[in-house]
Amino acid sequence: MRFLPLLLLLFCTLADAAILKVGPGEKYPVPSAAAKEARDNDIVEIEPGTYRGDVAVWNANGLVIRGTGTRPVLDADGKSAEGKAIWVIKGNFTTVENLAFENAAVRDRNGAGIRLEGRDLMVSNCLFRNNQNGILTGENPESSVYILDSEFDHNGAGDGYSHNLYVGGVKKLVVRRCYLHGAVVGHDLKSRAYESVVTDNRIADDGGESSYEADFPNGGKVLLAFNVIQQGERAQNYTMVAYGEEGMRPSGNSFTAKGNTFLNQHDLGGVFIRLAKGNIETNLIGNVFYGNGLLPDIPGIREHNDFTMTPPGNANWRPNSRQN
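RESULT FIELD:
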């Protein structure tokens, strides 16, 4: 009987939730109309199509916002919510599924597909293309961000301060089965999270002019596992993965890289992994390093990893996810 109040609370929460349908002929013709009406725990379903110049601020908590059928496209078309993004998410515990965010640009060159100002976000099966930032979050040590089965394609304003994916000082970031590629001068992934778990992704310059493939500027606990990480011939920076270059956290710093394929195609060589000096627990094991590149001076690194000049067979691997 002691669980009855909790069950009643859950039932009441679900009973209060509504499904808001967005699309031509629906009550809400565009997502911003639904955003104004959405209440905590509602489900917003967006029909296929291109929603051009429609931007929104989402304030409610516990929202599930998802595209139905063929992935709907949210094209900024010169507009932005609060001068920040296509979507500014202020609510907590938000889920975003099966949507494309394109062409976000603002005057301060920091426009994002999604700007997270609340806490706890899950994004799955989404595309972020040609924005100044794909996703941008602020600092919130109580927040977790999960990015799954998504693509980040040519985001960045070209100034080196905007990136495909830029996550601030959150409690935890998880990036899994994603394809991050071709950042415009900036990094493919930049995380200031206290813990970053980056697994089963392809992170690639893809012939563009990105800088780092992955940057963890404040250290923290990092797991980099089973990714294909590629630096192209025209990369802006010779380092592929950087850790702690802007000052590490006082404690809790560790860097683990296992089972990754590092593919360096830069004519001038470069650095596979650059670790800042300091008290860092490190574990590099089972990785394959192709091409010329420097590595940290860690005992046993040559014995526990493979080095080759022959391109690995999975160099062009990419995650399976629906594309536009």
